[in-house]
Prior knowledge:
With 242 residues, the protein is of the alpha+beta class. Among the domains are: 16-78, no CATH class; 85-187, Immunoglobulins (Immunoglobulin-like). Helix content is 27%, strand content 23%. It is built from 6 helices and 8 strands, in the order ααααββββββββαα. The protein has helices at 16-26, 34-45, 51-60, 65-75, 192-205, 221-228, and strands at 85-88, 96-98, 103-111, 123-129, 137-138, 147-155, 161-170, 176-187. It has a 5-stranded mixed sheet with strand order 2-8-7-4-5, with no helix packed on it. Strands 1-3-6 form a 3-stranded antiparallel sheet, with no helix packed on it. α1 runs antiparallel to α4, α2 packs across α3 and α3 (51-60) packs across α4. It starts with 15 loop residues before the first helix and ends in a 14-residue tail after the last helix. Residues 1-18 and 214-219 have low confidence and may be disordered.
Amino acid sequence: MDVDNGPSEGPVTGGIDIEQSLLQQFSCMGTTDKEELVQQLQKLLGSHLNYTTAAFFLDMNNWNLQAAICSYLDIESTNQLPSMALVSNPLANETESIEPNVGFQKTWHICNNGTETWPAGCYAQCSDGNKMGGNKVPVPCLQPGEGMHLSVNMMGPSLPGTYQSKWRLCTPKGAYFGDPMWAIVTVVEEGTIALTQQLSHFNELGAPPPSIPAHNPFVSQRSHLENNQDTVPPDGTDSSMW
Length: 242
């Protein structure tokens, strides 16, 4: 299972000594640029910390790097993230065709494959790619072994092309957990789908009719039946002369 904020080898291993080391590192930083602060927090806490989680802790602490580091160490380093498994989902290279600015719904079947009930306040959000108009979706507190169908209402982009949207489950504090979920669509020119359906219908109409043996009106009914049965008169004469 892909977990962005799980334990990993890096600067954060827990303990007061590490906090003091981190405080010494950021004490020389005087930047107020938010992008730079996010990068510094990721650098200090380890590459496992994704951008959204880093921005969340900084924003929660008024973009104070020291306070954000302390909050992370106090909260995330002592709590185990929930577990989620994707039960069914199209492969990343499978796409569906839609027309521009057409709404559609993407659904994934997920389950809690851990040993703890999910905390209240979890939600799903787009973590990478094109949101395609999708908003955050609240997720119920699934018990261990329990599953659900998670649906997101989306809108096809206005320009033709192939678009992908990566979605993740988040804890109430913004930490990603569980398997990634993908929505991949191909936007085609308006009217293309209807034209394709019409051409398919025309092909069906133009299919050759099933073969039906035709009856020759110039041959007697008896001769016609005998020819179909591949029989020959006992005297060997031509049946057409009967």
